[in-house]
Here is the input.
Amino acid sequence: GAVVSQHPSWVICKSGTSVKIECRSLDFQATTMFWYRQFPKQSLMLMATSNEGSKATYEQGVEKDKFLINHASLTLSTLTVTSAHPEDSSFYICSATTSPEETQYFGPGTRLLVL
Amino acid sequence: DQQVKQNSPSLSVQEGRISILNCDYTNSMFDYFLWYKKYPAEGPTFLISISSIKDKNEDGRFTVFLNKSAKHLSLHIVPSQPGDSAVYFCAASVQGGSEKLVFGKGMKLTVNP
Here is the structure.
């Protein structure tokens, strides 16, 4: 149980285009989903916390107009990287939980390469 | 198919004792392993890592042991402190850690005063 999927698993796009990444909880209802960006040496940066039906809470330094997050249902959150640039190339990982105080279940990650 | 497994969901130990958190993996291509610590309502923070060319890495109270033949790693915390109470995630990567992380489901550690 507690499976989280991400789609696509990898994407290559041209600079200036937008890319949407989906995060789904397959067998549980996720009231809260988190979006992370993976940096070199494997550090994870929390980008934002999204709660179903409400606006996402962005961490300091994360541009909310560039990284659009939508948590429209209890099983789906999307991250849209708008006007992507090469510096946005990274792994993006989501996690889901039934409540922020409970353990998080991580998705498999999405590799974004912006040319 | 879960490639990184933390089979015990929780562990409770007394302050001052040793905490041993276990992690198993199935993908023999994994060559870089990490442990993350997560407090409630916060993102995970990096704790310690180990490359497959080593079998032990130590950082203060934290030591990670890697047994490649058994595809098993463990995190030892000595001595355990109440502030260590958190959820611990094991993660693995390939190509020396340059590829995306694969996480286990986490284990909740409670250190009792």
In short: Chain A touches chain B at residues 2, 34, 36, 38, 41-46, 91, 93, 100-101, 103-106, 108-109, 111 (CB under 8 Å). The mean pLDDT of chain A is 88.
